[in-house]
Amino acid sequence: MSKRGLILVISGFSGVGKGTVVRRLMEAHDNYALSVSVTTRTPRAGEVHGKDYFFISEEEFSAMEAEGKLMEWAGYVGRHYGTPRDYVFERLEEGKDMILEIEVQGALQIREKYPEAILVFVAPPGAAVLKERLLGRGTESIEQVEKRLARAVEESGAMESYDYLLINDDLMTCVEELHQIARCEHRKMQVNRELMNDIKIDLKRFVEGE
Ligand code: ADP
Ligand code: 5GP
User: Fold this and answer.
1) Tally of domains in the chain
2) Phi, psi of 48 (to 5 degrees)
3) Which strands sit side by side in the sheet containing 70-76, from one edge to the other?
4) What does the pLDDT look like over 45-93, one tens digit per residue?
5) Which residues contact ligand 2 via a Cβ below 6 A?
6) pLDDT interval class at 1 (50, 70, 90)
7) Is the pLDDT score of 119 beyond 90?
8) What's the predicted TM-score (pTM) here?
9) Is the CB of 15 under 6 A from ligand 1?
10) FRET label pair with 145: which of 3, 75, 155, 173, CA 20 to 30 Å apart?
């Protein structure tokens, strides 16, 4: 198995259940770590600074961006969101599969800069279910819900740039499918060059020593 972790980008319409899927994945398997983004939006009830997001000012965000500290960033419904680079790369070196739960503009920047990244798009079983989930979460006003649904229409245009499409209908099926994607990606030859060479050397030495 490859030792360095994978960059796993998870996107999907707001309210589809990305956060829920990722939380369950991390509860079930210990090889994942979650990138904690910076954002200029205000915290929702129960959100913790440093765990859900680093909640920062627009000025602090601009400074981080100017100093090249973000792997990617994007504007979303009037606020800014970005992925701090150092944290992600430290965990990758430790062998963790890093999950970046980000929207599509950011995902496309990651594809451009880090072509080895795996892009997964999570969709709902239907549009009505999406609205129900967004309303059911109870964290946004009806105006915000409408804005997020309009944004979903825009985001749907970027789906074909992704590597995998998951439907979040039954939660645990979706979680396990995501886990299987990561397992298979670890088996790819291109991330196993070192192991492949070790196998060749071991075999050659063994056969020649017979
Ligand atoms: P996102 O992170 O994509 O914005 P959330 O993880 O906050 O979405 O989920 C939105 C709402 O949908 C939450 O109330 C969550 O409990 C619910 N939810 C998530 N996945 C499912 C599922 N498979 N079936 C039913 N409800 C779900
Ligand atoms: P929310 O406000 O619901 O937490 O997030 C809004 C959207 O921003 C979601 O689609 C979420 O995936 C995305 N997002 C969260 N963090 C980042 C980030 O660091 N970069 C980008 N590009 N999008 C992010």
Assistant:
1) 1
2) -115, 130
3) 54-55, 38-39, 79-84, 70-76
4) 899 999 999 999 999 999 999 999 999 999 998 999 999 999 999 999 9
5) 14, 37, 41, 72-74, 76, 81-83, 101-103, 105-106
6) low
7) yes
8) 0.94
9) yes
10) 173
pLDDT above 90 for 112: yes
The two tokens of residue 90 are: 């430290």
Q: Does the residue 151 lie in any domain?
A: yes
> How remote is the CA of residue 167 from the centroid of ligand 1, in Å?
12
Distance, in Å, from the CA atom of 160 to the CA atom of 119, rounded to the nearest integer, reads 10
Paired residues of 169 in beta bridges: none
Q: Which of 25, 77, 135, 137 to mutate to test the pocket of ligand 1 (most atoms within 8 A of CB)?
A: 137
The CATH code of the domain that includes 165 is 3.40.50.300
Which of 93, 79, 97, 86 is CA-nearest to residue 10?
A: 97
Which residues span the domain enclosing 110?
7-35+96-209
- Nearest Cα residue to atom 12 of ligand 2: 102
Q: Kindly state whether residue 117 falls inside one of the protein's structural domains.
A: yes
